[in-house]
Design brief:
The structure is a single chain. Helix 1 packs across helix 2 and helix 2 runs parallel beside helix 3. This protein has 300 residues and is of the alpha/beta class. The strands form 2 sheets. The protein has an 8-stranded parallel β-barrel with strand order 1-2-3-4-7-8-9-10, surrounded by 6 helices. It has a two-stranded antiparallel ribbon with strand order 5-6. The chain starts with a strand and ends with a helix. The radius of gyration is 18 Å and the shape is globular. Helix 3 links the parallel strand 3 and strand 4.
């Protein structure tokens, strides 16, 4: 199978001041999927414009026809499965069945405290995620759901008519630890990684490749444990968080070399950030577009 090339468009621009144009251009460039971050604010963008993921994707669905749309990633930090399921079913309907839910356990950033709570520990995040994903799976697949858990409840929650995509829209589960990977193997149509975050500052690209190879091998082992065909689970790399940083977007050849090394590890989709001037995602737009148009053919 040839590599799928996707992009992630951060929701920092007003829709009529460049926001809309990016999504239409993403479809014109032939990207497989255009994702956006599902945060209330994010890192260095906190004190600037930042818009909601689901309304942004809904608007994008109305101006595109072929482009798949998704989140990278949604988390329990400020989401509840019952209300999220209703929004996703609506978005899947509006888009004609073009939505992928990227989902992860969340972190300790601004989202973790925006609702006034103390940030959860890594263990608490993992515990919540382990309950969040199976419940969301049911809510998106069944007409009516009741559930009482340690963290989440649903009382006769109705989700008729359900997703356009059957039995539900696909999950792309972000995980590097065994509990999250087990959720990816059980419920995911794809597994997502950004690499090993410990290597970002001082690691080397070679060390990153070894770390990601180790993650992929652990995922293989977990798939075997739960009886999941590992070839049935897509593998997605969200770039920009490995020691390579923006290097792969410096030229077409640099990207093809970078992507090729990850294709050899079994990755089926690579996601690159839409260029944002004066940020960690700054890149030459002409080179970016050349990569979008020419790299997939070179990676078949």
């Amino acid at each position: 199978m040839s590599l799928r090339l996707s992009t992630v468009i951060l929701p920092y621009r007003r829709w009529h001041e460049g926001g809309r144009a990016a999504w239409t251009r993403a479809e014109q460039l032939g990207f497989h999927t255009a994702y956006t971050y599902d945060h209330l604010s994010w890192r260095t963008f906190r004190d600037g414009p930042w818009f909601g993921a689901v309304p942004t994707l809904t608007a994008a669905a109305s101006i595109t026809d072929r482009l798949r749309l998704g989140t990278l990633v949604t988390s329990p930090n400020f989401r509840h499965p019952v209300t999220l399921a209703k929004e996703l079913i609506s978005l899947d309907d509006i888009s004609g069945g073009r939505v992928t839910l990227g989902i992860g356990a969340g972190g300790s950033g601004f989202d973790a405290t925006a609702l006034g709570q103390e940030p959860w520990t890594p263990r608490e995040r993992a515990d919540r995620f382990a309950e969040f994903v199976p419940l969301l799976d049911r809510l998106l697949s069944e007409d009516a759901v009741s559930y009482e858990g340690d963290f989440y409840s649903a009382h006769e929650a109705r989700n008729i008519p359900g997703c356009v995509q059957r039995p539900r829209l696909p999950f792309a589960v972000a995980a590097t630890g065994p509990r999250g990977m087990r959720l990816a193997a059980r419920f995911g149509q794809a597994w997502v990684t950004t690499g090993d975050p410990k290597l970002y500052e001082n690691g080397t690209p070679e060390q990153s490749i070894q770390a990601i190879r180790g993650q992929a091998e652990r995922l293989d082992d977990i798939c075997a444990e739960v009886g999941r065909d590992m070839t049935d689970l897509d593998r997605v790399l969200l770039t920009g968080f490995t020691p390579d940083r923006g290097g792969p977007l410096q030229s077409l050849n640099a990207f093809v070399d970078f992507a090729g090394r990850h294709v050899e590890l079994g990755f089926t989709e690579i996601v690159i950030h839409w260029p944002i001037p004066d940020s960690q995602f700054a890149a030459d737009e002409k080179v970016f577009e050349q990569i979008a148009m020419e790299a997939p053919a070179q990676l078949r």
